[in-house]
Amino acid sequence: MILMATHKQGEFVLEAERTRTKPPPLYKVLLLNDDFTPMEFVVIVLQSFFSMDRERATRIMLQVHREGSGVCGVFPKDVAATKVDQVAAFARQHQHPLACVMEEN
Question: CB neighbours of 92 closer than 8 A, spacing ≥ 6?
Fold first, then answer.
């Protein structure tokens, strides 16, 4: 909130002026399909890094498999970037080429 001074016949009166800040832009985190990463590994990633139950993780994994990509979640930029980095590191650690990217929502 910002206070603005208004002049009224020799005296100043402070009036509150409400300003609205825009919420930060949100980013979709997506997994991309490849021909080498096992489907079960994708389910584990979705459960571990995106807090999905097994049923939802399986649905997203099948979407990735059939459509080429699937949305794991929508987050502020710094959270999305962290998720992408975590998934990439985990996939490398387990020697899978699973790709995870983010794009503005």
Answer: none
Q: Is the pLDDT of residue 7 over 70?
A: no
Q: Which amino acid is at 72?
A: C
Which string of b and e fits 20-44 if b means at least 16 CB within 10 Å? eeeeeeebbbbbebeeebeeebbbb
- φ, ψ dihedrals at 32, nearest 5°: -110, 140
> Residue 28's closest CA among 84, 68, 67, 96?
84
pLDDT in tens, 28-64: 999 999 999 999 999 999 999 999 999 999 999 999 9
